[in-house]
Write a structure and sequence with these properties.
By secondary structure, the protein is an alpha+beta fold. The chain is built from 9 helices and 6 strands.
Length: 419
């Protein structure tokens, strides 16, 4: 039975090790650069943002003359005349003079859309960055507790050897041997699960960073903790928060597009010039020069569509007001989330100090128990209890440091969402 569990354990460890797959040294401070350069979601939103930016400058371009040209050949018969085959062409240029302010409103709407896309791009970046940071600390934590289990397994084996000596000396029963053997099996089971979790975390990091799925990451051996960390004292302007600015950008976009539609009644003023060659079917002159029309003029255009644009514009104005309300609500919620995150950081920080003390006490308790076991005062259940208690203290201490690191990453992500 023991050999079977050892074989299973080694198989899982080999899966964790992923022998033959490339390794990569991964520093926490490099994650942001890697996400920006390798993550496809971030690359996609950057491309979308560049596309939106190219639509700016609409107001200036609206005063660039527009034109249309066409040329053709037509075979026709008209009235009593013989069949003819003649060319045709048209050249027309149009210059915008006035659109009732709609061109400047369109430019404002496009600027708002750019701002909205910038906020979306920032959101994707920070979401992906926070996720990879969280998985990074999860991976470091799993590696740390994996080492704790290895040390505990080694200690358990030493205690098993001592138990066998006591049994051979008649100072203990075979139950002591079973106690340590059962503990060994349980420890190996837990280590196998941890190994699978390590592989899972590495695959998630690899996916986020856009590298080969089975890449093995070289990271820190344990989750560090800065006792003088200033993150819990950070402040931010919630008016500048990404999600607030996103809703305000939508507000400006809806407002501008709504105003464009509500100005349906304002005229359009254009200057135009045109040269057109008509054929004999359109202009009954035998000489081609007599079939050419040239024109230059100014045109005033009014449109009426049964007030449809008016109602559509009012609908967009309503959406603009709704976006304003959402911005105000988001501001309240992010302020609550930010303060809660900082409060959690302070709480975990205090718990880390208590956890550190428990680790020291657990080590002292284990040393005394092993000493008393050697003197025959304690038995195997006492040793196992002290051993596993020390393991749990160290796991809890590591978990608290991991939770603090992830909570700090969340606060950093929120802080990064302001200019």
């Amino acid at each position: 039975m023991k050999k079977r569990w050892y074989l299973i354990f080694m198989i899982v460890l080999s899966l964790h090790g992923q022998i033959g797959h490339a390794g990569m040294k991964l520093e926490y401070d490099d994650l942001e650069t890697l996400i920006k350069t390798k993550n496809k979601k971030v690359a996609a939103t950057n491309l979308e943002l560049s596309g939106v930016e190219k639509r700016l400058g609409y107001l200036k371009r609206s005063f660039i003359p527009t034109g249309e040209a066409w040329v053709g050949q037509e075979k026709f018969e008209t009235g009593p005349y013989e069949s003819m085959n003649e060319p045709m062409y048209s050249l027309r240029a149009n210059l915008n003079l006035y659109r009732g302010g709609r061109d400047s409103l369109e430019e404002a709407a496009r600027k708002a859309q750019k701002m909205s896309m910038e906020m979306q791009s920032q959101q994707v970046l920070q979401n992906e960055l926070f996720e990879v940071r969280a998985f990074y600390w999860e991976l470091v934590f799993l590696k740390e507790i994996s080492k704790l289990y290895e040390n505990t397994l080694e200690l358990n084996q030493n205690n098993l050897s001592k138990a066998l000596k006591r049994i051979n000396s008649g100072l203990a029963t075979k139950v002591d041997k079973l106690e340590f053997e059962i503990s060994e099996t349980q420890l190996k089971q837990d280590m196998a699960r941890i190994a699978v979790s390590i592989s899972t975390s590495q695959r998630r990091i690899a996916a986020l960073l856009g590298v080969e799925p089975e890449t093995q990451f070289e990271t820190l051996d344990l989750v560090p903790h800065d006792h003088d960390d200033s993150t819990p004292s950070q402040t931010m302007d919630f008016n500048l928060f990404r999600d607030v600015q996103f809703e305000l950008a939508n507000k400006m976009d809806f407002e501008a597009r709504g105003e464009i539609l509500k100005r349906w009644w304002t005229p359009k003023v254009d200057i135009y010039a045109e040269s057109m060659l008509l054929n004999f079917r359109e202009r009954s002159f035998y000489t081609q020069n007599d079939q050419i029309d040239n024109a230059f003029g100014i045109k005033l255009t009014f449109s009426f569509d049964g007030f449809q644009d008016q109602y559509d514009g009012e609908a967009l104005v309503a959406k603009s007001l709704a976006a304003q309300f959402r911005a105000e609500q988001v501001k309240l919620e992010i302020e609550a989330d930010f303060n809660t995150a900082k409060q959690e950081l302070r709480l975990i920080h205090d718990l880390i100090h208590e956890g550190e003390k428990n680790v020291e006490k657990g080590a002292q308790y284990l040393r005394q128990t092993l000493d008393e076991y050697s003197r025959g005062v304690k038995n195997s259940p006492d040793v196992l209890s002290a051993t596993l208690k020390q393991l749990e203290f160290k796991k809890r201490f590591a978990e608290l440091r991991k939770d603090y690191a992830i909570a700090k990453a969340q606060v950093q992500s929120l802080l990064a969402n302001q200019p």
